[in-house]
Design a protein that fits this description.
By secondary structure, the chain is an alpha/beta fold. It contains 9 helices and 17 strands. It has a 9-stranded mixed beta sheet. A 6-stranded parallel beta sheet has the order 3-2-1-4-5-6, with helices on both faces. Strands 9-10 form a two-stranded antiparallel ribbon. α4 packs parallel to α5 and α5 runs antiparallel to α9. The radius of gyration is 20 Å and the shape is globular. The relative contact order is 0.17.
């Protein structure tokens, strides 16, 4: 399948590299609102540099990978669908549920597919965690924790202002990795209760590229809440850009007969440890490949070819978006937020695959 990429920023390099690992797709062209960025990536990765309009008009391109900024994900995604092409978006699916639902509904009306990052749950870490839970190694899941905490991006990122604007913040930036991993392991969410805030109205950049830049904070930067899953498990979550240092784990799940540590869902690998009741931590055998970014697109192309559902699908991404948006909504209303959408857990990967292989 010939595909195109819209958005030639830093993350696009990982997608170009991943495309080299498979023969089921070919990146024919890339485009960016900055023509020089598209030209540079086209020369680097041996494809054509198009304008956005040219890429959308090319009848050979069947799927477009949308790597624009979050606020443009839905706008560009709708343009792709209107051009009669499938779309796979970087995370998050959108910045609010209303526009996210418009994207999903438009695709359904046109008989096209929506896919979305993150695809880190294809990696060995989350797949092994899912396998251990499904095998009953900790029994019925009862509770858990999920923490992504730091002090933001202004001390090191060359363009940190984006992370404090609409579409940024710890939840929409990093939450997709955590919530997607949890839904993959535990299933869909029932409701959310949360309190959210921001510690600073303004941030001062100390990274060399923009040292001294004053950054207005337009989003909440510390979100603490409880997620109740449809299976009854209760996960305590903190997503924060307001903590200098901490010693909290990424994800832990506590079951009826044991506990499990889940590796950082922002990566594809990492150890999984299980502790049976009354026992000690033991590392699980890893029987899945690590993979890397682009594996979700490869799975989507494969699924289109065979007619099966793809794993990093629009229903999953929309459900995750609704859960993330529920944190601020719950804080604003002082009430639990019932999650209206639902989704199926993606099919687990089978044992025995090599890296970049998809069943």
């Amino acid at each position: 399948m010939k595909i195109g990429i819209i958005g030639c920023g830093t993350i696009s390099g990982a997608y170009f590299q991943g495309a080299r690992k498979t023969d089921i797709l070919e990146i024919k062209a890339c485009a960016d609102i900055r023509p020089e960025a598209a030209q540079a990536q086209a020369e680097r990765h041996n494809c054509q540099a198009y304008s956005v309009d040219e890429l959308l008009a090319d009848p050979e391109i069947e799927l477009v990978v949308n790597l624009t900024i979050p606020r443009a994900h839905v706008e560009v995604g709708l343009q792709v669908l209107e051009a009669g092409k499938h779309v796979y978006s970087e995370k998050p699916l959108g910045v609010d549920t209303e526009s996210g639902k418009q994207l999903i509904d438009t695709a359904a009306e046109k008989g096209l597919r929506v896919g979305s990052a993150p695809d880190t749950f294809f990696g060995a870490g989350i797949q092994t965690s899912r396998q251990a839970l499904d095998a009953g190694k900790i029994g019925r899941p009862i509770a858990g924790t999920a923490f992504m905490c730091g002090h933001g991006h202004e001390s090191w990122h060359p363009n940190p202002a984006f992370y404090y604007d609409i579409g940024g913040g710890p939840m929409l930036d990093m939450g997709p990795y955590y919530v997607t991993a949890l839904v993959n392991i535990l299933g869909p969410v029932k409701r959310v209760a949360a309190v959210t805030t921001k510690a600073f109205e303004e941030r001062i950049a100390t990274s060399e590229a923009v040292r001294g830049l004053k950054i207005p904070v337009k989003i909440t930067t510390h979100l603490a809440g409880t997620i109740e899953f449809q299976n009854g498990a209760i996960i305590t979550m903190i997503m924060s850009f307001d903590m200098w240092r901490h010693s909290l784990p990424c994800i832990e799940i506590y079951g009826e007969t044991g506990s499990m540590t889940v590796p950082d869902p922002n990566g594809f690998g990492g150890p999984v440890n299980v502790c049976p009741a009354g026992g000690n931590w033991e590392e699980e055998e890893i029987r899945f490949p690590n993979n890397a970014r682009m594996i979700g697109v490869i799975d989507m192309v494969s699924a289109i070819g065979t007619g099966r559902p793809h794993r990093a699908n629009g229903a999953l991404a929309y459900h995750v978006l609704e859960v993330m948006c529920a944190f601020d909504k719950s804080s604003e209303t002082g009430e639990h937020v019932v999650i209206e959408s639902t989704t199926e857990r993606p099919e687990p990967l089978p044992y025995g695959l090599a890296e970049w292989e998809i069943d």
